[in-house]
């Protein structure tokens, strides 16, 4: 239950496996909140997306996050991801909170 088992990170949109650093984690917290987790440290059920626009758009179109997280995900989360990615285009992983 602790999720310590190592699993490949698979993008919920394209189903590609990527090194963890190239992915954005989205978490359903124990409170049932859906949050972006650029640090990968939050507790909860996680889903991964490639950090490229195509995958985010694809995920949005298919609502992949809702399926992966087994809950209804607000479509606004995809917009949030896009904003986040564009804002941190250079140095995405260094500048994030
Ligand atoms: Zn992908």
What topology does this entry show?
Blueprint (H helix, E strand, L loop, with lengths): L8 E2 L6 E2 L4 E6 L5 E4 L7 E6 L2 H10 L1 H6 L6 H12 L4 H4 L2
Helix pairs in contact: 1-3
This protein binds zinc ion.
Q: Describe the global form.
A: globular
How many extended strands? 5
Could you spell the SSE succession in H and E letters? EEEEEHHHH
- On the 0-100 scale, what is the average pLDDT? 86
Q: Rounded to an integer, what's the Rg over CA atoms?
A: 12 Å
- Strand pairing plus helix content: what structural class? alpha+beta
Give the second-level CATH assignment, the architecture.
2-Layer Sandwich
The N- to C-terminal Cα distance equals 27 Å
Question: What do we call the CATH homologous superfamily?
Answer: YlxR-like
What's a quick, concise take on this entry?
With 97 residues, the protein is an alpha+beta fold. It contains 4 helices and 5 strands. It has helices at 53-62, 64-69, 76-87, 92-95; strands at residues 9-10, 17-18, 23-28, 34-37, 45-50.
Overview of the structural elements:
The protein has helices at residues 53-62, 64-69, 76-87, 92-95; strands at residues 9-10, 17-18, 23-28, 34-37, 45-50. It is α+β, with helices and mostly antiparallel strands and 97 residues long. The protein has one domain (9-89): Hypothetical Cytosolic Protein, Chain: A (2-Layer Sandwich). The strands form 2 sheets. Strands 4-3-5 form a 3-stranded antiparallel β-sheet. It is globular and about 30 Å long. The chain starts with 8 loop residues before the first strand and ends with a helix. The model has no long low-confidence stretch (mean pLDDT 86). Zinc ion binds at residues 11, 13-14, 16, 50, 55.
